[in-house]
Amino acid sequence: MLTYAILFVVLIVGGTALLSWPLGRYMKWAMDPDAPETGPAGRFTRGFQAFGGGVTRAQQDWKQYMLAILAFNVLSFVITFAILSLQGYLPLNPDAMVAMRGDTAFNTAASFTTNTNLQHYSGEASLSYLSQLFALMWQQFVSAATGIAALAALARGLAGKALGNFFVDLQRASFLVLLPAALVVGTLMVLGGMPMTFQGSAVATTLEGVQQTIARGPVAAFVAIKQLGTNGGGFFGPNSTHPFENPTFWTNALSTISIIVIPMACVWMFGRIVGRMRHAGVVFGVMLALVLTRTFFAIYFETAPTQSFAGLPIEQVVGNLEGKELRFGSTAGPLWAVVTTSTSNGSVNAMHDSLNPLAGMMPMIGMWLNEDFGGVGVGMINMFLYIVVGVFIAGMMVGRTPEYLGWRVEAREVKFAILALLAHGLFILGGTAVFAATPWGADTLNNVGPHGFSEMLYEFSSASANNGSGFEGLGDNTVPWNVATGLVMLLARFIPIILPLAIVGSLSAKRRSAESAGTLGVEDATFAGMLLATILVVGALTFFPAATLGPIAEHLIYMTK
Prior knowledge:
Shape: globular
Order of helices and strands: HHHHHHHEEHHHHHHEEHHHHHH
Number of helices: 19
Strand order of the largest sheet: 1-2
Distance between the termini: 25 Å
């Protein structure tokens, strides 16, 4: 079993890492062409400008770029909310779905606008095909494209170039990166057995003579962009545990690769835009080390038998299979759990609520750190915040100039970075504390004690990390949960985009200097160690106390008897 687990992880993670290299090269061409006015890049640029009108032709500074992001996403939110609230009167509704409740529509619109895809509803029982495709699937394209665009602008600023135009970048990310990838993956998903139809639910008669209604729809198209855009929203309530969203071992492998390949490629795209591929390699290595470490521990902890069978005459030699598909086993589930929370994907092929306590902590750690590859674009942006803090601390410790890529890092930039990092912890811990102390949370728990606390902690971790997965024993489709997590998702999405752009704006106002012997290097093992230490210290100091009340306490109570 151990050999199988190692081979599977190497195949998926290692293979995806190799695939991300050429994809990163292509994404650099798509998002930051060397000759944007000539050749194929020029034709795309002129086409995008013709489609977008005059607003796409002007270069934007960081404030204009930020305002463009906010304006577009406000409009996206309003359109999505309107479709969800009016779906009973709109076409493509063969199963006659009624309007979504107001608070649920608010939460869902906030969720998909922010690339979170937290779902407090069951898609096949709540949404029309129009809502699934033109509200949610459309958002899965443009929310992911927003993250890629923001990273491209940040990298250009650090390279000393103009930030570009958000609306052009949005189209580049949508039509040159996400759409071609989704067409390829969607086709492979159909060949793998996923439904792709606009017909209503099928009615079948079972062997017992009972009629059964089987939901279906344009599943393959939805699943392709859900994975590639680190969205994670399920067409069906069970998400990728549903046989129509994940029919076979091979669709499971393809989905796992699709989740992380673009976030990996974003690191290489960043390195190519700033012209520092060795630095990108160091950052990639730190991210990969964190992912592999959490994968190892998740699989290791899941090899322990489930405590539900303790004392029963049942032999368990394959680990904890509670909440898992037998076709995937006890390895593919923990690997997916780590990959989906190393990004902001949030899809599941196993019930995270059924993971052994410390295995369930591994997805939470990924969301707490919120940087090891992360969502498309925003994962590298979050890592940039840690880099700013790490460069400043290291420079102060060794007496070298705190500079990053030739830009002097001073108090203003560090304050912005710290504010963004602390906001993430505040949303998670503050929200969990309020709901743990009030009936808003206590009355919705399926479990008491440490696991119940973990359910609430996981929910706010997922919302703040724009992840979307959950410990689904929680009854979270209530007004307090919908409003609170909706607000957290909105704030946690845009604060970590606005503040890094502000940092770049602050750096760009300074004179860039050539790196010297007195400048702290960012391309060696020393910097990698310092960056890793910064990530772990910030994470440990912020979240370890909460972890002791949840998964660690549950492990000590139930798993050490």
